[in-house]
C-alpha cells in the first residue's frame, strides 16, 4: 500500500511539470469471492494445535484434566467437517497423548472417540496437489489408527473399526470454503500403502474374547482383501491365513464368524500368493478346523447360503492339498471323511454321518460331487491316502458312472446334462486314480466296463451329448466326449505296463476292437480331423503298442489288419505336423505302434515289408523334425533283424535320388554339428585324441562318479543317434554303398570306427577319474591302459590319413575331370575348324576345274591304295566299275544330294515376276554337285 502511495505522489510531481492529460483510473487491489460474499459453505478458521499439544504435555498444565477435555471438545467442534491434511501430524500427536493416558485416566476416552469419528470423514485438501504433498503423512496417520487398537477399551476399538469402514466406503461433502475432501480412490490407496492390514491381523489376538469387535475386525479385513492385492500380501506376511483359519469354529450364534473368515481366505486365494496361504494352512490346527467346519456344514445346514459356504470350504481344502502334498489330511481324519461323503450315494454305508444325508439335484450339491472327486484326486498324490481310498471303495463309486447314457431319467435323479458332466468328471478322475489302484481296478472289472462303453460309443444307438462342461468340449450332439475319456482311461491303465492288466485287456478282445474302431470311426482323412479326434487315434495306437510290445501272440492277433492300419497312418502328410492339432503325436504313436506291434513277428514283419513299410519310414526320416529321428532309426534297426530289410533299405530312393546311406551320413553330420564335435571343412577329424567328443561333454570335463552312475561318455550313446546309425551301417555294410559323395565317404570312415573311438573315450574317462581320485593302478594295468590309449590314437591317425587320401583322390579326380572337359571343348573347336576347311575345299573344287582334277586324282589314288590286290587291275579280265569322264569327287549313286553354297537361306528379297523385267535378275548363286 505504501508503494502505491509513493507511486501516486511521483505521478503528481510529474504531472505538475507536464501538460495536463486525461486521468485513467487504475485498479490497485484484487477483489476475491470472499470479499464479495459469494463463497458457498462454512468457513474453517485455523486452530493452533501446537498450543493444545503443549497444554497436554507441558509439566505445568499436564494435570489440568478438565481443561484438557474442554479444549479437546472445542477442537472437535471446530473440525466437525473434517481434518485438513496439513493438521494431521499435530492431530495424531494429540491423539496418541490421550491414548497413552486413557487407561489411567478414563476421562480421555470421550475425546478419543470424538477424534476417531472425525477421522472417519475424508481428510480435507486445500490444493489439488495436497494429495501428493501430504500422501506420506496420511499413510502414517492411517497406520497410527491401527496402533490405537492397543487401547483396552471396547468402545475405542469399535470406533476404530467404524472409522476405517467409513473412511474406505463413504465420500465426503464439499460444504467448506477453500477445502475439498479426498476421493475414495485416494483413501484406498493410502490404506494399501500403510501397514493397517498387518496391524489389524495382529489385533485379532487382542479381541479373542470380544466377539463383537472380532466380527468388526473381520469385516474390515474382508473389505480390505476384496479389492487390493497389496493388502492381501500384507495380511499373508503376518500369517493371516493361519490366524483366521485356526479359529473358524469359535462360538458364534450369528454365524458371521465362519462366513467372514471363509470370505477372507477366499480373497487371499484370489488376490494373494496361493502357495504362501497354503503353507500357512498346512498344520494340524487349520486342517482340523476346516474338517470340523465342512462336516458341520455338510450335516447340519441345508440352506442355499450354507451349501455355498460348504463348497467354499472344500475349495480352500483343495488348494491346501494341491500346494502341500504332505498336509495332514490323513492324520486329522479329513481324508477318510471326504472319501465317505464322495461315495455314500453310490456305495451304501452305515456311518452315522451319512445315515440320513442325501444330496439333491440342485446346483450346489452337484458342484459338491465334482469338488469331492477333485480333492480326492489331489490327495491321491500322497501314498498313505491310497489305502483310505481303497477302503472307501472310491473306484467302485466312480465306475458306477462308466456306463451307457440313458435317454430318460427320473425327476428325482440327476438330469441328462448333469449325469453326462459328472460321468466325464468321474472318468477324468479315474485316469489318475486307476494306475495307483490297480487291484481295485481289477476288482471292479474296469477293462470290461470300459470296452463295453467303447462299444456303445461306436455303436448305432442315438445319443445327443450336451457338451456343457470342460470335459465335454467338442462333444455336443455326439458320443465323442465319452469315447475321448474312455480311451484316455484305457491309455492311463495300459501305460502302467502291468502284465495282469494287459492280459486281461487282451483276453477281452481289446486288440481287435481297437483296430476296428480305427478302421470304422476314423476312416476319413487325417487333415479333416479336429484335435480331439487326433488325440483319440493317438491313444488307440499307444494302447495297441503297450498290448503288443512284449508278447508274440498279441502281435499275431494284431495281424495283417493292424499292419494295414499302421501303414495308413504312416502315410500321413508331414505338412500337417505344424498344424497344432496334434498330428506330430499321431505320427509318433504310429511309428511306435509299428515298432512294438510289428517288429518281432515274422508274419507281420514280412507283410510290413511287402507294404513298403521300410520305404515309408525312410520317407519320414528324410522330412520329419529332428526329435523324431531317434524312434524311426530305432524301428529300422530292429527291423534289420529280418534279412529282407537290408535289401529294402538299399533299394530306397528319396527326393532327388537320395540313397539311404547318403541320408544316414547326412544325419550323422547334423547330429555332430548339434553336439559340437570338432571337424574341418571337409568333415575330417581334427582332434585325434577325442574324435567323437562334443563341445558340451568337453566343457563338463571328467567328473568322478560312483559306479552306479552313468558317465558322460556312456550317456552320450543314448543322448544322440550316432550309435544307432553305426548299428544300422553294421547291418548294411560299409562298402559298395550307392549314392555316396566325398563327404559321405569321409564321414563313413568315422562311422566305421565308432565303436573303437567310443571305447577309447571310455578308457580316457576312466584314466582321468583315477587321476582325479589320486589312484594309481598297478603296473600291468597301467601299461595296459597306456597301450589301449596308444592303439586308439593310432587308429584315429589311420582314419585321418584315410580321410586325407580320399580328399586328395577327389582333388585329383576333379583335376582329371577338368582336363577332360577342356579336351572336349578343344575337340568341339577342332570339328568346327574341319567343317570350315571342308567347305573351303568344296568351294575351290566347284569354282576351279584344276582343283577338281587334282581332287579327282587324289581320290583315285586313295581308292587304289585301299585295294588288296592292285596287280589284278592290269589283268585281261579286270572290270573297271568307275564311270569314265565323271567330273565329281563323290561316290555316285541313285540319289542326288544338292548342297547350296549360300550359308544363309532366304536372305535375298522376294522379287515379284513381271514380263517387262529383264530376265537377268540378280539371284543367289547355287552349286549342284552330283
> Termini separation (Å)?
140 Å
Structural class: mainly alpha
**How large, in whole angstroms, is the Cα Rg?**
51 Å
- Rounded mean pLDDT is 84
User: In which order are the strands of the major sheet placed?
Assistant: 1-2
Gross geometry? elongated
Instruction: Give me the number of helical elements.
Output: 43
**Poorly predicted tracts of residues:** 1-9, 11-19, 901-930
Classify the helix fraction into a percent range: 55-70%
- Report strand %: under 5%
- Please describe the biggest sheet, giving its number of strands, its sense, and whether it closes into a barrel: 2 strands, antiparallel
Tally the beta strands: 2
Overview of the molecule:
This protein is mostly helical. The chain is built from 43 helices and two strands. A two-stranded antiparallel ribbon has the order 1-2. α20 (363-379) packs parallel to α23 (416-433). The model is unreliable at 1-9, 11-19 and 901-930 (pLDDT under 50). Residues 47-765 form the Cilia- and flagella-associated protein 69 ARM repeats domain. One of its GO terms (cellular component) is sperm midpiece. Keywords: Cell projection, Cilium, Flagellum.
List the keywords.
disordered N terminus; CFA69_ARM_dom; 2 strands; Cilia- and flagella-associated protein 69-like isoform X2; 930 residues; disordered C terminus; mainly alpha; flagellum; CFA69; cilium
Amino acid at each position: 500500500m505504501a508503494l502505491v502511495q509513493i507511486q501516486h505522489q511521483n505521478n503528481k510531481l510529474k504531472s505538475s511539470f507536464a501538460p495536463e492529460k486525461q486521468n485513467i483510473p487504475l485498479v490497485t487491489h484484487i477483489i476475491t469471492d470472499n470479499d464479495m460474499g459469494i463463497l458457498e459453505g462454512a468457513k474453517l478458521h485455523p486452530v493452533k494445535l501446537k498450543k493444545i499439544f503443549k497444554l497436554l504435555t507441558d509439566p505445568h498444565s499436564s494435570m489440568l484434566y478438565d481443561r484438557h477435555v474442554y479444549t479437546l471438545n472445542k477442537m472437535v467442534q471446530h473440525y466437525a467437517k473434517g481434518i485438513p491434511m496439513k493438521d494431521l501430524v499435530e492431530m495424531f500427536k494429540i491423539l496418541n497423548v490421550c491414548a497413552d493416558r486413557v487407561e489411567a485416566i478414563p476421562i480421555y476416552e470421550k475425546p478419543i472417540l470424538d477424534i476417531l469419528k472425525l477421522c472417519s470423514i475424508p481428510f480435507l485438501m486445500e490444493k489439488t496437489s495436497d494429495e501428493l504433498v501430504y500422501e506420506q503423512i496420511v499413510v502414517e496417520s492411517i497406520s497410527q489408527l491401527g496402533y490405537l487398537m492397543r487401547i483396552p477399551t471396547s468402545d475405542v476399538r469399535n470406533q476404530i473399526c467404524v472409522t476405517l469402514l467409513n473412511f474406505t466406503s463413504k465420500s465426503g461433502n464439499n460444504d467448506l470454503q477453500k477445502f475439498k475432501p479426498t476421493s475414495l480412490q485416494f483413501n484406498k490407496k493410502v490404506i494399501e500403502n500403510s501397514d493397517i492390514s498387518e496391524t489389524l491381523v495382529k489385533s485379532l489376538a487382542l479381541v479373542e474374547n470380544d466377539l463383537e469387535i472380532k466380527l468388526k475386525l473381520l469385516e474390515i479385513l474382508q473389505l480390505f482383501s476384496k479389492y487390493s492385492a497389496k493388502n492381501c500380501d500384507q495380511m499373508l506376511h503376518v500369517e493371516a491365513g493361519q490366524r483366521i483359519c485356526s479359529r473358524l469354529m469359535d462360538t458364534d450364534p450369528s454365524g458371521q464368524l465362519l462366513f467372514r473368515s471363509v470370505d477372507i481366505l477366499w480373497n487371499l486365494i484370489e488376490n494373494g500368493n496361493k502357495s504362501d496361504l497354503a503353507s500357512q494352512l498346512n498344520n494340524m490346527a487349520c486342517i482340523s478346523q476346516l474338517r470340523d467346519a465342512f462336516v458341520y456344514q455338510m450335516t447340519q445346514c441345508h440352506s442355499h447360503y450354507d451349501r455355498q459356504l460348504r463348497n467354499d470350504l472344500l475349495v480352500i481344502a483343495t488348494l491346501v492339498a494341491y500346494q502341500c502334498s504332505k498336509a495332514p489330511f490323513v492324520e486329522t481324519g479329513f481324508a477318510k471323511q471326504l472319501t465317505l461323503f464322495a461315495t455314500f450315494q453310490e456305495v451304501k454305508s452305515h456311518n452315522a454321518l451319512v445315515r440320513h444325508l442325501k444330496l439333491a439335484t440342485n446346483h450346489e450339491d452337484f458342484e459338491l460331487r465334482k469338488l469331492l472327486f477333485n480333492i480326492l484326486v489331489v490327495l491321491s498324490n500322497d501314498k498313505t491316502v491310497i489305502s483310505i481310498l481303497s477302503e472307501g471303495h472310491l473306484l467302485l463309486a466312480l465306475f458306477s458312472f462308466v456306463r451307457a447314457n440313458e435317454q430318460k431319467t427320473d425327476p428325482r435323479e440327476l438330469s441328462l446334462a448333469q449325469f453326462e458332466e459328472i460321468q466325464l468328471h468321474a472318468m477324468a478322475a479315474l485316469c489318475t486314480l486307476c494306475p495307483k489302484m490297480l487291484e481295485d481296478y481289477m476288482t471292479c472289472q474296469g477293462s470290461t466296463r470300459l470296452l463295453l462303453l467303447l462299444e456303445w460309443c461306436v455303436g448305432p444307438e442315438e445319443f445327443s451329448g450336451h457338451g456343457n462342461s470342460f470335459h465335454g468340449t467338442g462333444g455336443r450332439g455326439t458320443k465323442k466326449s465319452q469315447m475321448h475319456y474312455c480311451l484316455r482311461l484305457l491309455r492311463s491303465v495300459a501305460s502302467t505296463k502291468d502284465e495282469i492288466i494287459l492280459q486281461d485287456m487282451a483276453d477281452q478282445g481289446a486288440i481287435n476292437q481297437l483296430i476296428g474302431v480305427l478302421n470304422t470311426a476314423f476312416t476319413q482323412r487325417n487333415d479333416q480331423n479336429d484335435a480331439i479326434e487326433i488325440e483319440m487315434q493317438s491313444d488307440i495306437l499307444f494302447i495297441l503298442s503297450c498290448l503288443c510290445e512284449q508278447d508274440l501272440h498279441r502281435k499275431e492277433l494284431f495281424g495283417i489288419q493292424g499292419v494295414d492300419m499302421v501303414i495308413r497312418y504312416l502315410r500321413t502328410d508331414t505338412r500337417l505336423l505344424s498344424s497344432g492339432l496334434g498330428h506330430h503325436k499321431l505320427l509318433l504313436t504310429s511309428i511306435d505302434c509299428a515298432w512294438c506291434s510289428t517288429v518281432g513277428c515274422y508274419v507281420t514283419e514280412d507283410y510290413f515289408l511287402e507294404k513298403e513299410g521300410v520305404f515309408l519310414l525312410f520317407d519320414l526320416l528324410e522330412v520329419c523334425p529332428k526329435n523324431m529321428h531317434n524312434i524311426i532309426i530305432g524301428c529300422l534297426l530292429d527291423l534289420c533283424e529280418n534279412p529282407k530289410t537290408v535289401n529294402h533299405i538299399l533299394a530306397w530312393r528319396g527326393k532327388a535320388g537320395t540313397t539311404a546311406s547318403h541320408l544316414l551320413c547326412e544325419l550323422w553330420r547334423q547330429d555332430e554339428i548339434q553336439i559340437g564335435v570338432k571337424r574341418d571343412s571337409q568333415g575330417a577329424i581334427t582332434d585325434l585324441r577325442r574324435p567323437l567328443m562334443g563341445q558340451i561333454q568337453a566343457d563338463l570335463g571328467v567328473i568322478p562318479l560312483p559306479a552306479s552312475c552313468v558317465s558322460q561318455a556312456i550317456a552320450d550313446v543314448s543322448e544322440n543317434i550316432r550309435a544307432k546309425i553305426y548299428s544300422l551301417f553294421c547291418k548294411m555294410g560299409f562298402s559298395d554303398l550307392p549314392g555316396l559323395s566325398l563327404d559321405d565317404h569321409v564321414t563313413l570312415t568315422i562311422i566305421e570306427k565308432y565303436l573303437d573311438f567310443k571305447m577309447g573315450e571310455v578308457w580316457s574317462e576312466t584314466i582321468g577319474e583315477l587321476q582325479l581320485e589320486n589312484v594309481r593302478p598297478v603296473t600291468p594295468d597301467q601299461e595296459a591302459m597306456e597301450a589301449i590309449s596308444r592303439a586308439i590314437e593310432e587308429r584315429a591317425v589311420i582314419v585321418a590319413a584315410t580321410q586325407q587320401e580320399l580328399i586328395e583322390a577327389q582333388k585329383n579326380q576333379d583335376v582329371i575331370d577338368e582336363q577332360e572337359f577342356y579336351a572336349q571343348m578343344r575337340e568341339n573347336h577342332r570339328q568346327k575348324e574341319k567343317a570350315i576347311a571342308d567347305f573351303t575345299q568344296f568351294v575351290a573344287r566347284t569354282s576351279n576345274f584344276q582343283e577338281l582334277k587334282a581332287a579327282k586324282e587324289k581320290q583315285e589314288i586313295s581308292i587304289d591304295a585301299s585295294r588288296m590286290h592292285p596287280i589284278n587291275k592290269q589283268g585281261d579280265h579286270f572290270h573297271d566299275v568307275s564311270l569314265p569322264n565323271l567330273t565329281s569327287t563323290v561316290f555316285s549313286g541313285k540319289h542326288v544330294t544338292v548342297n547350296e553354297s549360300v550359308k544363309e537361306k532366304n536372305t535375298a528379297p522376294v522379287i515379284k515376276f513381271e514380263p517387262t523385267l529383264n530376265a537377268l535378275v540378280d539371284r543367289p548363286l547355287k552349286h549342284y554337285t552330283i
